[in-house]
Cytochrome P450 (Agromyces salentinus), 415 residues
Amino acid sequence: SEAGIPRSGALDDGPGFLLDGYTFGQRRFRKLGTDAFTTRLAGRPATVVYGADAARIFYEGDRFSRERAMPTSVQHLLQDEGSVQTLEGAAHHHRKTMFMQMLRPEAVAGLTRIFDAEWTAATVRHADTTRSLYDVAVETLTRAAVAWCGIPEEAVDVRQLAGDLAAMVDRAASFGPPNWAARARRRRAEASARSLIERVRRGELSIADETPVRRIATETDADGGLLPVEVAAVELLNVLRPIVAVSRYLVFGAHALHHHPAWARGVAADDEAAVRFANEVRRRYPFFPVMGGTVQRAFDWRSRTFQPGEWVVLDLYATNHDARAWSAPERFNPDRFTGWNGDPNTLVPQGAGEVATGHRCPGEAATIALTAEFVQRVAAEAPFTVPPQDLRIGLRRMPALPRDRFRVRFAGPGA
Ligand code: HEM
């Protein structure tokens, strides 16, 4: 029975989701006075849930798989066939270990150092010009990601790759021609990643040991054979693409400093304050709206039995703004992370639960480190000014960005 879980008023909430964007769940949870409701999304029955308890059920205990978890238009741009996200059980654990080892703390520190140097170079390159900070962040992070992966610069077209990787994220929630165009760019990026993996395997490129590209090229499957080249290429993109996606948090970090300048002094002076600021940016600003999952093992929750095959959609945005976990959730307040208990199911912009055993993002520490480093440098060095423009962040367009893509005027040389 559905005793504990009310039904949404609409016959199908697909159009409502497109109309309301990030606030889709919040509006309905509030109206129905519930943390779960059933509906249809584009014809498919779904239960939409939010909050720490729902996040725990969704991410812990192997209850869900990612099979048919998201529309193919999203899936093909973000993860694709054979990736770690599509695996479960022992095969998932084996592949996830590779990601966690590639993203261990020393490696994250290395990525942050490379990013630092690239950002310095970008401020010099763009001195005295007005640019979209989003575009500059994409370019900077692509260069950093390529170098950190150990890919020789001459082996890829960095500009083209930057545009392709950014389009995969920007177009993930769009339909029709814009989505197809981004899928064509993804296929191009996959083809070049495949040829790169093949060249590494043939020893044609000089690649340092312990680099992600070597690790992925030489990684074996649970059965001991090399990963199929298509899968290795997909996993290489699974490192490059999300590093470039951190560009959104860099823009949001700059946006937050611009609107809340009182925090700048503390962020500039104190690494821990910069990390708290980065976490509040990740909590407060919109990125992944929801995550879908398909029940693979029956379980009971809210007086109802969830059967294998059922589709559940966890609202990440609503969970990050849940008043049961966060006081005054709409307020931007990095101090809420002073003495925070670290509950893995309340701050969930990159998934919930445990990273090693579930699908939580293995790139979270890298994301926090890059964002904290960036806001600290912006706060300390004031490398740009922010000319008048539309700084509003519409919550309908997913994924979100400030309307004018945060244009900044870089300081002159030697400033
Ligand atoms: C998984 C978001 C950065 C690599 C995830 C998931 C989310 C997410 C929500 C969970 C997907 C699920 O439940 O199935 C983000 C956001 C980022 C980010 C918002 C900020 C830009 C990164 C970075 C990396 C990365 C920097 C690697 C360098 C991955 C991988 C998975 C994943 C490989 C799949 C994990 C698995 O299925 O076990 N990410 N991520 N992400 N993320 Fe991230």
In short: Residues 66, 84-85, 96, 99, 103, 238-239, 242-243, 245-246, 249, 287-288, 291, 349-351, 359, 361-363, 366-367 surround protoporphyrin IX containing FE (CB under 6 Å).
